[in-house]
Amino acid sequence: MNEFSFSVVPDVLVGAETSQRLGDITAAMGMQRVLIVTDPGIVQLGLLDGAIKNLESNHVTLSIYSDVVADPPESVVTDAVVAAQEFGCDGVIGFGGGSSMDVAKLLAVLIKGQQSLTDIYGVDQITSGRLPLIQVPTTAGTGSEATMVSIITTGETTKAGVVSRTLLADKIILDATLTIGLPPAVTAATGIDAMVHAIEAFTSRHKKNPLSDMLAREALRLMAGNIEVAVKQGTNVVAREAMLLGAMLAGQAFANAPVAAVHALAYPLGGNYHIPHGLSNSLVLPHVLRFNAPNAGHNYRELAAIIMPNAVLPIDQLEVSELLATYFLSLAEDFGLPTQLRQMNIAHADIEMLADEAMLQQRLLVNNPRDVSHEDALAIYQKAF
Asked: Do 200 and 168 have their domain in common?
């Protein structure tokens, strides 16, 4: 066995309506002035109401920063830091989707004022500590609650990441009741996103390890077995909880065995056309699976047996990979998601530009089980078109 390291959030609470105990939890952690980082939709839907009531009953003073947007730009982070410093908080709660949780991670570090945002871009650039941090996801997809990565938009189409174990939260709260109101299309896209995390962690070239493999397998078992019910019977709390737990396990897996070509090719779609991240992954996933088949077919066979437990799998690994690719195409079609780039109003002439930008994602491409050249990226986008 090759040497590897493995890091996870130390404390996880799973259960219906557990977010309504945030006051009890923060008080027990010694927090007295808490900043909640979220987005306007969460506030408008009333998803915070139970948590706020419990925080107030525990005499925890709170402030809500609710200006987070999808693919948050640097300005959102800097504005939130100013708001947090003016408030004088001693703890941070990320409450929402991946964007809110990514901003919360950075705030917990930057509030201390010892480093600026530009100082910490890259891998292991954080030299200071952080404030206590709790993450409460309201979608079953990004896995951000469990990762040591925060992604920020730095320009019109460019993004940068902060990668550090310092960003791992102190506690995760998985409350499936917060996800009941998600529309079917969002549930589907975020669910497929989480499944991509597990698949790419399981085939990650350099850091794949027994612990990430175990988590990826269980994540896929939970999500493949429950995604259809979660999408089509959105009030089913059992299915919702399975998806939420599966997404977190996938997050733990790819936090330690990083994602690869699916994400590298998906990022330019989000950056240029503002396509939601989960849908971007879904659009390129089948074609990357086919591309990787010569190198990862044996791994895909193991995962296919989990995802499609009743299927008779062919012996040939290329055929197994094709079966897996067809499964995800059919899944997206069944859920009414677009399956072609042209359906997203992407011009064929833009494919060259997309390939150029995908090749800039070397941080991700080095993890892919098969080398990806510019010509390969171009061919994958052509097939996805």
From this structure: no
48-63, pLDDT tens digit by residue?
A: 999 999 999 999 999 9
Helical H segments across 98-183, by residue range: 98-110, 117-120
What is the SS3 assignment for 295?
A: helix
- Distance between alpha carbon 277 and the CA centroid of its chain, in Å? 9
Distance CA 146, CA 106 (A): 14
Shared domain for 26 and 52, answered yes or no, is: yes
Give the C-alpha separation, 99 to 174, whole Å. Answer: 17
Q: Domain limits at 78?
A: 12-178
Contact present, 348 and 355 (Cβ < 8 Å): no
The pLDDT value given to residue 71? 87
Instruction: For residue 180, give the amino acid letter.
Output: I
Q: Give pTM, 2 decimals.
A: 0.95
CATH number at residue 277: 1.20.1090.10
Task: List, in sequence order, every beta strand (DSSP E) within the chain.
Answer: 12-14, 33-37, 61-65, 91-96, 122-123, 133-137, 149-153, 159-163, 171-174
pLDDT band at 365 (very low <50, low <70, confident <90, very high): very high
| Other C-beta atoms lying within 10 Å of the C-beta of residue 45 | 12
Q: Which two tokens stand for residue 50?
A: 């139970």
What average pLDDT does the chain have?
A: 96
| pLDDT, position 160 | 86
